[in-house]
What does this fold into?
Amino acid sequence: MIEKLFVIDGIKKVRLNEFFEKELERAGYGGMEIKRTPMGTQITVRVEKPGMIIGKDGKRIKKLTEEVGKRHELDNPQLEVQPVEVPDLCAPLMANRLAKLIERGWHFRRAGRSMLQRIMEKGALGCEIVMSGKLKGPRARMEKMVDGYIKHCGEVAEEMVDRGYAIAKVKSGVIGVQVWIVKPGAERPDAFRIIKKEEPEELESVKEELKEEQEEKAEDENNNRVE
It folds into this structure.
């Protein structure tokens, strides 16, 4: 029974994400977060242009909140809009842009490489772009482009890697676009640095005393030679 609840929650999240992708495409949809509180369900939406969602006097966001409550059966949904700080480091947003470039007629390699270079120039630690479908010819294939550091599995990958997925609709069929970004400042589990060991003050004082004794002995020897 518990497993069924997890599956139902997962399906609701996927459907809600698809709903936002369609409704907020022009505003630059960059992902969402859902938190359940005693007051209801808090939904945080990240977009490139928050003003397009809020609307005049907050009318559009109220209408959007009502639609979310009716269509997706959520208890007292509360919609919050946050701007995307760096759009070029938001994986869902970049995946959508790459899909649009392919739909406009850009060659998939040219579009992928330009997007990869753009992301890395913004300071990303790593990026991986995967395009799959009928890229060239009647047979489906996959093209992967990687730069920098990428973590694929484990709990660390869930925390440090931002993932985005989009679909490009072309004449030959459908092309799936997947973008993974490791943002700047992420703590790598396998990163290390060498720290120079500082000597205690006692050792330094002993070294100074020995140095003074050696200087005194050298002076005595010089005086003896002169005499």
In short: Residues 2-84 form a domain with the GMP Synthetase; Chain A, domain 3 fold (CATH 3.30.300.20). The chain has a mean pLDDT of 82. The longest helix spans residues 201-226.
